[in-house]
Design goal:
The protein is about 65% helix and about 0% strand. The N and C termini lie far apart (about 60 Å). The chain is built from 13 helices and no strands. The model has no long low-confidence stretch (mean pLDDT about 75). By secondary structure, it is mainly α.
Length: about 240
């Protein structure tokens, strides 16, 4: 629950920053430019793109101020504020603190809808029945009395073999546990793709792109691979006239 409150506070502060943070930031930029003899852009002038001309569809009153405030600053802030609070709130209903007092069957049923590829329509109906039996079962089981977090709940479910009795509940619990890790991994992957597929490599093939991205993401795994291993693998792929 504390995590949800922190997320909501962060979103409110980001919204405040979005509404009133551009001008203070612009003043700091102007001070930095002045100290370092960098030419300061006139924010009241008409915006000209990197090619040196304005777009044919651009309004005549489209100023630098408008472009950098609404098309750059606000967009970046929105990236950070686009957090699904509902998803986090639904996750917290799994917490076993205080005899599962936060448990909410409707919210957990809603949570499975965030994973359309992991639960089909039949399983969603079955899950709602399993959740009712599950909460009645664990609330009366002393082994679940002193759990502090979702990770402990997952561990004890396996130890007590309730993951077999309630397989869909356990599947939803596992998806909840890996959510933060999976999200961070996906974000890192997109960052790597942007670095690999640049303007100079805009025609890179899918297989070659995948290979480059994997090498960039799994750096630790590739630290043990030597140049000799790569050369031997390359030579064995097919017959070659010359030896590297």
């Amino acid at each position: 629950m504390e995590a949800v409150l922190l997320v909501e506070s962060t979103k409110r502060k980001l919204q405040e920053f979005r509404e009133s943070g551009f001008n203070p930031l612009l003043k700091k930029i102007h001070l930095f430019c002045g100290k370092n003899n960098i030419q300061i852009l006139n924010m009241e002038e008409e915006y000209i793109n990197e090619k040196g001309h304005r777009s044919k569809r651009q309004r005549h009153d489209f100023t630098n101020q408008h472009y950098y405030n609404f098309d750059c600053f606000n967009v970046v802030v929105d990236w950070f504020s686009d957090i699904n609070t509902e998803l986090l709130q639904n996750m917290t209903t799994f917490i076993s603190y205080d005899s599962f007092s936060k448990f909410d069957e409707l919210k957990l049923t809603r949570l499975c809808e965030f994973y359309p590829y992991d639960f089909d329509s039949r399983e969603k109906i079955t899950l709602s029945h399993q959740l009712g039996l599950y909460i009645d079962n664990v609330q009366k089981d002393e082994r679940y009395a002193n759990l502090n977090c979702i990770a402990d709940l997952s561990r004890v479910m396996v130890e007590t073999r309730k993951h077999i009795s309630f397989p869909l509940v356990y599947r939803l619990l596992k998806l909840t546990l890996v959510l933060l890790v999976a999200t961070a991994t996906v974000e890192r992957c997109f960052s790597v793709v942007k670095n690999v597929k640049t303007k100079l490599r805009n025609r890179i093939g899918q297989d070659f792109l995948n290979a480059c991205v994997v090498c960039s993401i799994e750096k630790e795994a590739f630290e043990s691979v030597t140049n000799e291993d790569v050369i031997n693998r390359f030579q064995k792929m097919k017959f070659r006239r010359g030896q590297l």
